[in-house]
């Protein structure tokens, strides 16, 4: 099985900054779970140890605990992957999120009307996490279900999210990306700044080939009570004319959809 290269500790910019009062063993266990995603559902003991800079003995104890509690399972090759307890938590989280309950039916109507994929994303450390995804009937899901991750610096949703943040958090995220060399950041920063200019002018940004060669994506921030907590993205598949259609026709409607969902969130009880 092909593996990604070893990455730095993913606890960078975790829930926010690390603070006193955290239980280090619990945090390390959660860091292990954060390593897994849809692109790479299995990791060996050695890969888990290396990516988190953990001694083998410590990694063994943490992995054994997560296996015993059904958060990890070991397959026939000896590698580890998420188990059913993760699925139960994920389903419970999704059902309880007001943003999903509010956005989901509107996203589905939008997807059917414009024949585009629509994703609702939130930041998860230095990536963007899909928490809801709407697919028009008859089209492939392309692997973009809830739980999928996209790099924050090289996705339309990540760039829209970054643009909307207050300068202090924006600078902190940029510094974290540069410090760990994430995603070849130096190569993507010109694209990030170009997206910022688009967002200033149009309220959304465009990106080519986010998933496949002939895919096109636009994204805009989505505010929850004046906080730029989410990003809303639309993606089409097709030839070059899909780009202009997204920008000229669908983009303004995506902005209205984002505003409509934000207004609905404001009406919800705190």
Structure description:
By secondary structure, the protein is α+β, with helices and mostly antiparallel strands. It has nine helices and eight strands. Strands 5-4-3-8-7-6 form a six-stranded antiparallel sheet. Strands 1-2 form a two-stranded antiparallel sheet. A hairpin with a 2-residue loop joins strand 3 and strand 4. Helix 2 packs across helix 3 and helix 6 crosses helix 8. It is globular, with a radius of gyration of 19 Å. The N terminus is likely disordered.
Q: Features of this protein?
A:
globular, 270 residues, alpha+beta, 19% strand, single chain, Beta-Lactamase, 47% helix, Arc Repressor Mutant, subunit A
From the N-terminal CA to the C-terminal CA, the straight-line distance is: 47 Å
Uncertain spans: 1-12, 15-19
Remind me, CATH topology of the largest domain? Beta-Lactamase
Give Rg in angstroms: 19 Å
Can you say what the CATH homologous superfamily of the largest domain is?
GAF domain
- Judging by the overall fold, what is the CATH architecture of the largest domain? 2-Layer Sandwich
Most strands sheet: 6 strands, antiparallel
Class by helix and strand content? alpha+beta
**Number of domains in the coordinates?**
2
The percent range for strand residues is: 15-25%
Give the CATH class of the largest domain.
Answer: Alpha Beta
Strand order of the largest sheet: 5-4-3-8-7-6
Helicity range of the residues? Answer: 40-55%
Per DSSP E runs of 2 or more residues, the count of β-strands stands at 8
Strand/helix succession: HHHEEHHEEEHHHEEEH
How would you sum up the global shape? globular
Question: How many H/I helical runs?
Answer: 9
The chain-level mean pLDDT equals 85
């Amino acid at each position: 099985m092909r593996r990604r290269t070893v990455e730095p500790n993913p606890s960078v910019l975790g829930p926010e900054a690390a603070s006193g009062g955290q239980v280090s063993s619990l945090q390390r266990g959660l860091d292990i779970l954060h390593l897994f995603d849809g692109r790479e559902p299995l990791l060996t003991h050695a890969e888990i140890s290396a990516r988190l800079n953990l001694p083998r003995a410590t990694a063994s104890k943490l992995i054994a605990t997560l296996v015993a509690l059904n958060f990890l399972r070991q397959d026939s090759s000896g590698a580890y992957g998420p188990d059913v307890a993760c699925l139960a938590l994920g389903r419970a989280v999704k059902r309880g999120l007001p943003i999903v309950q509010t956005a989901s039916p509107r996203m589905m109507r939008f997807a059917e009307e414009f024949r585009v994929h629509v994703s609702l994303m939130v930041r998860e450390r230095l990536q963007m996490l899909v928490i809801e995804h709407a697919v028009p009937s008859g089209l492939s899901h392309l692997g973009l279900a809830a739980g999928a991750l996209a790099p924050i610096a090289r996705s339309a949703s990540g760039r829209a999210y970054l643009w909307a943040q207050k300068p202090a958090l924006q600078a902190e995220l940029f510094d974290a990306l540069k410090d760990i060399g994430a995603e070849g950041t130096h190569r993507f920063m010109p694209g990030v700044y170009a997206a910022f200019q688009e967002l200033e002018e149009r309220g959304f940004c465009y990106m080519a080939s986010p998933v496949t060669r002939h895919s096109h994506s636009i994204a805009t921030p989505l505010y929850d009570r004046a906080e730029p907590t989410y990003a809303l993205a639309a993606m089409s598949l097709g030839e070059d004319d899909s780009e202009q259609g997204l920008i000229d026709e669908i983009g303004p409607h995506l902005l209205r959809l984002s505003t409509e969902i934000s207004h609905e969130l404001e009406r919800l009880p705190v």
